[in-house]
Design goal:
It is globular and about 60 Å long. The chain contains ten helices and twelve strands. The chain has one domain: TIM Barrel (Alpha-Beta Barrel), CATH 3.20.20. It has 311 residues and is an alpha/beta fold. It has an eight-stranded parallel barrel with strand order 1-2-3-5-8-9-10-12, surrounded by nine helices. A two-stranded antiparallel ribbon has the order 6-7.
């Protein structure tokens, strides 16, 4: 059985109302969750009307949806200090009734940092900061009520924190670590995450990354099956060739691109491709949909793909 979630990229250009409409279609369609990227700049030209902040958006969705899980793939550790981020996510979790998940990554897109005045340290430092952020956020959430939390790292220092507010979920919201790195990413997931996500990669790459995760878990004495194994894939689905072609053109694809984790085709072709990820070990798949205004795409996947994804 594989679980399906919808994953969106609002920095391409979408208002909150358009994001909300997509989230409601996701919920009505029966998908497990609605996740969004955390970017402040589109990778090409455009991106109008401009970026929407991931956690401000999710706070709104928390109050305007009832069932679906909500979260990020992935929040950049460079964007926010870990203490305030823990407070924000805990508050959104409470606003949602305990439906939030935090995906956290090291960040990679330098241009968005330059565009909005966000420091962008070298890669090694970004990973060092990510590791400390994971420790701080877990520490704040997992500290029992009434006790205090302190942390002394190279980049962050917390002294006698009351570690409040607490999330609605106990002991804390799930944490997602993702990426295709060979060493540090699987190691961080093994130590700190509840889910490991391989983004936009071939089935063979997912298999290799899951094996690396297993090795990292062995080194820290953790059962790899304790983590959800997931992948993010781009999907362009249509009932006929013209509908497929139109949706693929939005993403800049002529057809399926297995190396990029891009699936283009009919519902049956999409199901066949998703089954290969399931067989590689993924129990959860995030279907990346670029055009948030194309609600019919969500509805098609809900009607023709979701009911058969586990078969």
């Amino acid at each position: 059985m594989v679980q399906l979630r919808i994953f969106t990229e609002p920095h391409v250009g979408a208002t909150y109302d358009e994001i909300l409409a997509a989230a409601r279609a996701t919920e009505q369609g029966g998908f497990d969750g609605f996740f969004r990227s955390d970017h402040y700049l589109w990778f090409g030209e455009g991106g109008e009307p401009g970026p929407t902040d991931a956690w401000a958006t999710l706070a709104g969705l928390a109050r305007e949806t009832q069932r679906i899980r909500l979260g990020t793939l992935l929040t950049a550790a460079t964007f926010r200090l870990p203490g305030p981020l823990a407070i924000t996510v805990a508050q959104v979790d409470a606003m949602s009734g305990g439906r939030v998940e935090l995906g956290l990554g090291a960040a990679w897109f330098e241009a968005e940092h330059s565009a909005y005045g966000i420091p962008f340290p070298p890669l090694r430092e970004r990973f060092d900061r990510l590791e400390e952020q994971l420790q701080v956020i877990r520490g704040l959430w997992e500290t029992p009520a009434g006790e205090r939390f302190s942390f002394s790292g190279r980049h962050y220092r917390l002294v006698d924190s009351p570690a409040l507010p607490k999330p609605a979920q106990s002991p804390r919201p799930p944490i997602i670590v993702g990426g295709r790195g060979a060493v540090r990413t699987p190691a961080l997931a093994a130590r700190h995450a509840d889910e490991y996500n391989v983004p936009f990669a071939s089935v063979d790459t997912c298999t290799r990354q899951y094996r690396r995760l297993g090795n990292a878990c062995d080194r820290v004495g953790r059962d790899p099956s304790a983590l959800v194994h997931s992948a993010a894939v781009t999907v362009c689905c249509g009932r006929d060739r013209e509908e497929v072609r139109r949706r693929a053109a939005v993403v800049g694809l002529d057809g399926s691109d297995p190396e990029r984790g891009a699936i283009v085709g009919s519902p049956d072709e999409v199901l066949t491709a998703l089954a290969a990820y399931r067989d590689a070990g993924a129990s959860r798949l995030y279907l990346q949909l670029i055009d948030l205004r194309d609600i019919a795409h969500v509805e098609l996947l809900a009607q023709e793909v979701l009911p058969h994804a586990g078969t």
